[in-house]
């Protein structure tokens, strides 16, 4: 099985004043096509940095980032934006929906970066909202939706351009347990039945249990699963 994500010898540093902070240390990481991977680790371990590199939101200081067959660490500007719009869907903890727009318009936003015409965009939006079970909420604005419904809109937005990969940053962190489980079941369905590869950052072991694989980061390195201690 081919890798949909491959990070090779990736280093990421940030400069804070006169100090250089290394967030990722010669990281090698692969995610096979069709996997649902949970990425866990303590705060500051580099989890969100990895997601940002995979999604083309950030660039490594050195090393290679290959996603969906493209060496994205070499892409910049409009080429990177077009690649991102077609290949990666993003799901965030706090939904990142535009409050003045309806569910339908929020889901349509990524398609404005594509060559699809208005009718094609409308059809894709309807399909994406149907997949997440929100056909009856297309005209509702975020304030008129529950937290679970808002996250489903965010997932529909991530799906609307039919990307190969979904990257999810604490997608259930703002939800109660029952609603969180519904969202995680939906991600499982998208992985199993729709063939979406998923990389999900989470602090929640119960959320990680929904994934097919779990990777652990600590201080910018992959580590073995931490030993579990008795409560």
UniProtKB/TrEMBL annotation:
* SMART domains reported in the protein's UniProt record: AAA
Q: Which Pfam families match?
A: ABC_tran
Single GO cellular component term? membrane protein complex
Every copy of the ABC transporter domain together lies at: 5-231
**Coiled-coil parts of chain:** none
UniProt record, GO biological process: response to antibiotic
Give this protein's Gene Ontology molecular function annotations. ATP binding; ATP hydrolysis activity; transmembrane transporter activity
Entry keyword annotation includes Transmembrane helix: yes
Q: Which family does it belong to?
A: Belongs to the ABC transporter superfamily. Macrolide exporter (TC 3.A.1.122) family.
- This one is known as ABC transporter ATP-binding protein
**Organism, as annotated:** Trinickia symbiotica
């Amino acid at each position: 099985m081919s890798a949909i994500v491959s990070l090779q010898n990736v280093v990421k540093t940030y400069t804070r004043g006169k100090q250089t902070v290394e967030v990722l240390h010669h990281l090698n990481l692969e995610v096979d096509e069709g996997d649902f991977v949970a990425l866990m680790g303590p705060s500051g371990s580099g989890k969100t940095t990895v997601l940002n590199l995979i999604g083309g939101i950030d660039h490594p200081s050195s090393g290679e980032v290959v996603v969906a067959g493209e060496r994205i660490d070499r892409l910049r500007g409009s080429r990177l934006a077009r690649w991102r719009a077609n290949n990666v869907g993003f799901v965030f903890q706090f939904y990142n929906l535009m409050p003045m727009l309806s569910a339908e318009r929020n889901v349509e936003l990524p398609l404005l970066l594509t060559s699809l015409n208005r009718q094609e965009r409308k059809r894709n939006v309807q399909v994406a909202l149907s997949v997440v079970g929100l056909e009856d909420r297309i005209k509702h604005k975020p304030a008129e939706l529950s937290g679970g419904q808002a996250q489903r809109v965010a997932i529909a937005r991530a799906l609307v351009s039919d990307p190969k990969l979904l990257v999810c940053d604490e997608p259930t962190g703002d939800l109660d347990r029952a609603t969180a489980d519904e969202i995680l079941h939906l991600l499982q369905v998208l992985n199993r039945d729709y063939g979406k590869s998923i990389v999900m950052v989470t602090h929640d072991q119960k959320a990680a249990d929904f994934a097919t694989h779990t990777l652990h980061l600590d201080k910018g390195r992959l580590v073995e699963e931490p030993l579990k201690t008795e409560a």
